[in-house]
Amino acid sequence: MDSIIKNKKGFSVLEIAVSLGIISLALLGIFSLSLQNIRTQNGNKSELVASMLAQEGLELARNIRDENWITYPEVDWDLDINGGDGTYILDMRGRDNLDDAPDSFGDAATILYADADGFYSHDNSGSATKYRRLITVSEILINGGSDYYLKIVSEVRWTDSGRSMDYKAETELYDWR
């Protein structure tokens, strides 16, 4: 019986420890790669949402201009867009009942809230999101100062992993009617 046990070959404790170490390093590499992939995916999702919110800000300003043309043809095309200190908050309801002139992103009025249907607005009846939106309007004089267009900048700011992130979209609105 003793000779049968001595003739069998097996793994030593050292070989098993080395094998487990190599397998652990490989699994650690796979795990860290997966973790980095999840972080990147979350960052990309946040930036995509921010880009859509910034674009929405431009569309909201354009909508006010178009509504002025259609509903109130006798008023200025830039009514409720151009005026005040040039900084605004807009959402799908327009500027009604909103703080028209927030000072900066530090102003609580710039916070976007998500409602139960997933729509974003400045109405704090939903749950606060990490996004803030500020729309800046600048009047740019052309033709020697006799005419002008509006430069609209919609900027969205949010924080991811302790870092402040920004997304900015710009357009120009003209009275081409």
Report the mean per-residue pLDDT as an integer: 84
Largest sheet: 6 strands, antiparallel
H/E topology pattern: HHEEEEEE
Number of helices: 2
The shape is elongated
Indicate how many domains the architecture comprises.
Answer: 1
What ranges have pLDDT less than 50 throughout 5 or more consecutive residues?
A: none
State the helical fraction: 25-40%
Radius of gyration: 29 Å
The helix-and-strand class reads alpha+beta
Sheet-strand content, in percent, reads: 25-35%
**How many individual β-strands?**
6
- Give the distance, in angstroms, between the N- and C-terminal Cα atoms: 104 Å
Give me a quick take on this structure.
The protein is α+β, with helices and mostly antiparallel strands and about 180 residues long. It has helices at about 1-5, 15-70; strands at about 85-90, 110-115, 120, 125-140, 145-160, 165-175.
